[in-house]
Each structure stands twice: as C-alpha cells, then as structure tokens.
Amino acid sequence: xxxxxxxxxxSLRKESxxxxxxxxxxxxxxxxxxxxxxxxxxxxxxxxxxxxxSPPPEWQWFREQVRAADAVLFATPEYNRSVxxxxxxxxDVASRPYGKNAWAGKPAAIVSVxxxxxxxxxxxxxxxxxxxxxxxxxxxxxxxxxxGADNLFDKESKxxxxxxxxxxxxxxxxxxxxxxxxxxxxxKAA
Length: 190
What we know:
- The protein is α/β, with parallel strands linked by helices and 190 residues long.
- The protein has helices spanning 17-28, 57-68, 85-95, 121-133, 162-181; strands spanning 3-9, 33-37, 71-77, 108-113, 144-146.
C-alpha cells in the first residue's frame, strides 16, 4: 500500500531551486511513496485570535491534509541561517490549536537547498529543532544538503547532475524505509 507523503516547499519563488529539487524527488520516488505537494503560500499568517470558533478555511484545509498524510518531506532554502517565514507559518498553523498538533507522530525528512557551498545547513538543522518539539521522528541519515543548486538544472528545470540524482534516489529510498520503521501515530485526544 503506497504511503502518502505531504511535500512542503519552503520557497514561493516560481523558479525556486528548492522547488526544482522537490520536483526531481517526486520524479524519482519509489512506487511505494505517493508524494503530494502542499502549497503553503496562501495560508494566512497564524494568529491565535483567529483560531477560536471558526478558523480560516485555508487553515482547516491544510490541517486536514497534514493529518491525512503518512509522512512529511520538507524541502527548504535557507534564509538568514533559518527557514523561510512561509514555512515557519505553515508549521505553526498545523501545530495549533494547543493539543491538536497535526504533525505529531508523522515521520519526516528534510532536504535543504542553496546555491551556496553548504547547501542550507543552517536551515536544515534549525528545522530539525522544531520537528523535535512537534514530535516528528526525523530521519537522521542520510542527511541531504544540496549546494550549488544554481548549476544543477537545464532551461526546462530538469535535473542534469547524475551524482545529485543518485544522492536524491538514495535519500528518498531511505526515507521510504524510515516511514516503514516509524509509522505515523494517531493524535491522542487532548
């Protein structure tokens, strides 16, 4: 039975290197993984005042999508040694209201992407800190930092680097195994 993986891309830019890497992962994913990109740019900024009674429908939709997933793959660029605000907002939206954390128990993995040499290392590890708090077992190995991303794609946004393709294939295969070892746990009633 295929595992549904919510794929969150932390960049809104149309020609984002992170989105291109995420698309490459979708193309090479094993048949047992069904990766579903969840767009996060439309989510209103989290404000607890809006989370009483009838929260914004975008929040409700997003929370339902996260809850329905068997696992989550985060693809993030690095902004100021951290994750972009749009990704942090999505994390906050699905972790609230208190006691109804949609992320809880979902196995996760992170790929960070940068044109720089260290491949978004700071964002990757900063995101890991949040995942610990959110009770998401995050795959530790292989780590995936994609540096030099500005030189990996052709004009049609297709991955041209065979070495990176093989690394991504090993990464997504390991993630499939991680999901099987750490099946998502249902949220306990608060």
